Amino acid sequence: MALLEVSGLSKQFGQIWAVRDLSFEVERGEIVVLLGPNGAGKTTTLRCIAGVLLPDEGSIRINGTSILHDPVTAKKQLGYLPEFPQPMPYLTVWEHLELVARIRAMPDNWRQRANELVQRLNLTEWRDSLGATLPKGVREKTILACAMLPEPPLLLLDEPIVAIDPIGQQVVKGMLREWRERGHGILISTHILAFAEELADRIIMLDRGIKIAEGTPADLREKVHVGASAPLEQVFAKLLEQ
Question: Do residues 48 and 9 touch, judged by C-beta distance below 8 A?
Fold first, then answer.
C-alpha cells in the first residue's frame, strides 16, 4: 500500500476544471515533485490532499485512511506547508510550535525536537518574535517547522524554498533528503526546475489540471528524445508543446 494514493481526483471552480481525473501515488522513502505552468493545478491538488478543499470527484487515501471519510485520522498522517504561509500574528515562533505539540498531544519531549528544528532552520533569533513581525522567509521556515514537528509520515510542501535565502535552501534540501532516508514520503509543488531536478525521485507534469507525463527525470528526457544532459527546462518546454 502506497503512503499516498490519489485516484481520479477532480476539482472544478465554476466552469473551469482546476484538476481533472488525476491519479498518482507517493511511496514511503520517496520525493515526488509536481511541475507545471501557472494554473496547472498543483496547489489545488495539494489543498485537496491536505483536506483544505473538498474534491468534486475521486478519492484520496493517506497511509490507508480516506481524507474524505475520516479526515481527523488522515490529517494526523501529514504535515502541510501552504503556498502562502501565514503564521498567527500574536503568537511567537516558539508558541506556534507549542500549539502544534498541544493539538497533536505530543509527549513532553517535544521541546527537544522543537529546539532542534529552531536551530537547524536558523530561527533562534526569531524564537520569541510575533508572527506579525516575521520576514517572509522566516514565516515560511516557521510553518515548515510546525509541519515537521510531529514527524508525520507524509509531508506536503507547496513552493517550500521560494522565499528562503540560498543558505536556508541548502538546509531545507538537506533535511528533506534525511526525511526520505528515514522512510517519509514527500510531495512537493514547485516551479523551480533546478530544485525539482536536485531532489525528485519522480516528477509529475501537469498542464491545465491534467497529468501529461510522469517518471524520473531520466524517463522524461527519454520521452521527449533529448540527451541525458539536456536541461530540465528543455524537457519541460517539449512536454508542454506535445
Answer: yes
Question: Helix/strand/coil (H, E, C) string of 92-132?
Answer: EHHHHHHHHHHHCCCCCCHHHHHHHHHHHCCCHHHCCCEHH
Beta-carbon count within 10 A of 101 CB: 20
pLDDT of residue 132 exceeding 90, the answer is: yes
| Predicted structure pTM score | 0.96
Contact between 223 and 213 under an 8 Å Cβ cutoff? The reply is yes
Q: What is the pLDDT of residue 228?
A: 83
What residues pair up with 213 in beta bridges, in sequence order? 205
List the one residue out of 180, 202, 209, 163 whose CA is nearest residue 37. 209
pLDDT tens track for 57-69: 999 999 999 999 9
Using the Cα atoms of residue 165, residue 170, residue 174 and residue 177 in order, give the sign of their dihedral. Answer: positive
- SS3 for 87? coil
Please, is 38 exposed, middle or buried when counting C-beta atoms within 10 Å of its C-beta (0-12, 13-18, 19+)? exposed
Mean pLDDT of the chain: 95
**Amino acid 64: pLDDT:** 95
